[in-house]
Amino acid sequence: MAGHSKWANIQHRKGKQDKLRSKMFSKLSKEITVAAKMGDPDPEKNPRLRLAVKAAKSQSMPKDVIDRAIKKSQGGDAEDYTEIRYEGYGPNGIAVIVECMTDNLNRTASNVRSYFTKSGGNLGQTGSVSHGFDRVGEVSFPASAGDADTVMMAALEAGADDVESDDEGHWVYCSVEALNDVTEALEKELGESTEAKLIWKPQTRTEVDLETAEKLMKLIDTLEEDDDVQNVTHNFDMSDEVAAQL
After folding, report:
1. pLDDT of the chain along its 246 residues, tens only?
2. Which of 209, 103, 100 is closest to 113 using CA atoms?
3. Which of 35, 119, 164, 178 is close enough to 4 for a disulfide, judged by CB 3.0 to 4.6 Å?
4. Distance between CA atoms of 240 and 246, rounded to whole angstroms?
5. Hey, which bits of 72-181 come out as E strands?
6. What is the CATH number of domain 82-131+204-245?
7. Which residues share a beta bridge with 174?
8. What class does CATH assign to 132-202?
9. CA separation for the pair 122, 118 (Å, rounded)
10. What is the CB neighbour count within 10 angstroms for residue 104?
11. What is the pLDDT of residue 23?
């Protein structure tokens, strides 16, 4: 069991995300619509849609907005989106994975490349950095779900591979294929999860200084402000001292 890096998934930026709630809702709605269009519009019969709806609820998206996004998928006017992943290096060679959903590949590729270049980084080929990450399922629980040992035992019994715990909560990791089953089993034992999703989990993390952290945060902010970008993942970490200065 390892201590979870609270910076790993950019959770320290929740304040900024709150200010960009409408943009966040737009991205979540897009994922719901695409998931429903690709599979069954019933979340109980569509694992990807079920995860998308859970993610939306975790961000307090109103039920009518969720229902509208699902309904949109069944109409003839639903946009056709292509899912694409970009990989590159940010300042000081920090690995960055950018997952996009777009209706214009040329626009998205041009924009993402520009963001990397302006930050002092560079966009690489697909696979250039993802080899340093594991594609896994992640189920999050609040600290109130139980102590670390309790959560670990429940996770192993549910078929998970690993757990990371700290004072803020618990993060359970499992294979991509097992995410739905593990989530359901754990929620029966521990109560409602905070979030369940597929992530790119860095195999190692690189601690950065204040100057590099500031440049990286600017790059990530710029990427996340782009409507075509759904998720941004990185492999950097920072000390509490650097985080406090940010």
Report:
1. 344 555 554 444 445 555 567 788 888 889 998 888 888 888 888 888 888 998 888 888 899 999 998 988 887 666 788 999 999 999 999 999 999 999 999 999 999 999 999 999 999 998 999 999 999 999 999 999 999 999 999 999 999 999 999 988 999 999 999 999 999 999 999 999 988 999 999 999 999 999 999 999 999 999 999 999 999 999 999 888 888 887
2. 100
3. 164
4. 10
5. 82-89, 95-102, 122-124, 133-142, 162-166, 169-174
6. 3.30.70.980
7. 137
8. alpha beta
9. 9
10. 12
11. 81
Q: Which fold has domain 11-73?
A: Arc Repressor Mutant, subunit A (1.10.10)
* Among 135, 109, 136, CA closest to 124: 109
Q: Are strands 195-202 and 236-237 parallel, antiparallel or unpaired?
A: unpaired
Nearest Cα residue to 234 out of 78, 117, 147, 116: 116
Domain locations in the chain as residue ranges: 11-73, 82-131+204-245, 132-202
Q: How many CB atoms lie within 10 A of CB 54?
A: 17
